[in-house]
Write a structure and sequence with these properties.
- The protein has 399 residues and is an alpha/beta fold.
- It has 18 helices and five strands.
- The protein has one domain: P-loop containing nucleotide triphosphate hydrolases (Rossmann fold), CATH 3.40.50.300.
- The longest helix is centred in the first third of the chain and has 32 residues.
- It binds 2-acetamido-2-deoxy-beta-D-glucopyranose (3 copies).
- The site of one 2-acetamido-2-deoxy-beta-D-glucopyranose has 5 residues, from loops.
Length: 399
């Protein structure tokens, strides 16, 4: 009797200690597993939205920019491309890569090479489109969990130097950069292999015929970019658009094949192809998938905003609060079919044949087929193939 009592007491004490230890261990895990909620995140996720001109990348950028966990910056490579004299895309790509690497790590000193000695936040290309630069600690204007208004930010959030920008960058779990000036993947390999980085690439593409139509509306503004893409080659004016489209389409093939066909081990699960048209047709689902891919959660405000900008004046009328205009996204993605003459469609189909077949855009064989909007030219995308180890696991295994 006595003995049994003693054993029971020992067992009880043991169980209590065990329980205590379990609580401590689980608490530890719990804290480790939620790196983004407690102010200073331990390990950042870096996202590159890699696209080309007129492919919906401004919208995709805003999808990230407006997220409360994201520090977003548009086109840092713009500074590199527009500071150099007579450059070619090939000559600049390593400089672009290094600028991106520094900014991903919140080191803005790299911008010194591309800005005047005395500079302001407003010297950064399209700075006011970055919600993080309109929110504390960069600017008191917009609380971090609210949608930012670009015009207001532009008026109120400029400051001298980039110290506040750097400080702000450090407080977010995700740093997202958008680039249209990136025509290959190989230069990014060192970033993908860098143990201090966790880079995910979102490759945003769009039907080349729609891109051509959109580019034609403001051809002048692409002149400098075009000559960089064409490597300063002399090309007859009437041919420039098609040769540029050819380069862009080739780059999509290069990038997609590199990432999907035989990806090096460090690229596995770090690349996601997104088609503009899929986003236009099913914006919430697509954005949810994209968020999941990079480890972000959807918020009710973002859901509402995405609905509004992709459905024209859907809910509410906060249209003018955003730089991105609200349009019927499905309509916009089909506009080329009624607006572009078949002769041009034919040309762009010729130069982009490989890319269109790879990315799932059906060609049309005549004006009739082009204008019959009931004929769907989008090949359904194959179901999401790779098995991405969840963000949390990824974080843990890398420690
Ligand atoms: C730089 O920012 C300061 C502070 O907001 C402002 O007073 C100044 O006019 C700005 N300078 C330029 C060149 O924009
Ligand atoms: C969308 O396209 C249809 C058919 O082309 C047209 O009737 C309609 O007005 C368009 N809607 C918008 C919002 O542009
Ligand atoms: C957008 O356009 C598509 C196709 O033209 C149409 O089916 C849809 O009803 C339109 N949506 C709105 C909100 O106008």
């Amino acid at each position: 009797m006595n003995l049994r009592c003693k054993v029971n007491l020992n067992t009880l004490v043991f169980l209590l200690i065990l329980q205590g230890a379990t609580v401590v261990i689980f608490y530890g895990w719990y804290v480790q597993l939620r790196p983004c909620e407690s102010g200073t995140p331990t390990r950042k996720v870096h996202v590159l939205v890699l696209s080309s001109w007129r492919s919906g990348s401004s919208f995709m950028g805003q999808v990230f920019s407006q997220h409360p966990s994201v520090f977003y910056l548009m086109e840092p490579a713009w500074h590199v491309w527009f500071t150099s004299k007579e450059p070619t895309a090939r000559l600049l790509r390593m400089a672009v890569r290094d600028v991106m690497r520094s900014i991903f790590q919140c080191d803005f000193s790299v911008m010194d090479s591309y800005l005047p000695e005395q500079h302001n936040v407003s010297f950064l290309f399209m700075w006011s489109h970055s919600r993080a630069l309109c929110s504390p600690p960069a600017c008191p204007l917009t609380p971090r969990n609210q949608m930012s208004s670009e015009p207001q930010c532009f008026q109120k959030c400029d400051a001298r130097g980039l110290q506040k920008v750097e400080e702000a960058c450090g407080t977010y779990s995700h740093v997202v950069l958008k680039e249209v000036r990136f025509l290959e993947l190989e230069s990014l390999y060192p970033l993908l292999q860098d143990p201090n980085m966790d880079l995910r690439i979102i490759h945003l593409v769009r039907d080349p015929r729609a891109v051509l139509k959109s580019r034609e509306e403001s051809a002048k503004s692409f002149e400098r970019d075009d000559s960089i893409v064409l490597g300063q080659r002399k090309v007859p004016a009437a041919e420039v658009q098609y040769q540029v489209m050819q380069e862009i389409c080739r780059s999509h093939v290069r990038i997609n094949e590199r990432a999907v066909l035989k990806p090096p081990p460090f690229l596995k699960g770090r690349y996601k192809l997104v088609r503009y048209e899929d986003v236009a047709r099913n914006p919430l689902k697509e954005v949810n998938d994209i968020y999941e891919f990079v480890g972000l959660g959807m918020t009710p405000q973002l859901e509402d905003w995405i609905y509004t900008v992709t459905h024209g004046n859907g809910k509410g009328s906060r249209k003018e609060a955003f730089q991105i205009t609200s349009r019927n996204a499905t309509n916009v993605s089909q506009a080329w079919r009624t607006m572009l003459p078949y002769s041009k469609v034919k040309r762009v189909q010729e130069v982009c044949k490989g890319a269109m077949s790879l990315l799932g855009y059906k060609t049309v064989n005549g004006e009739k087929e082009q204008k019959r909007l009931d004929i769907d030219l989008l090949v359904p995308q194959e179901p999401y193939q790779f098995s991405w180890v969840s963000t949390k696991k990824e974080h843990k295994s890398k420690r």
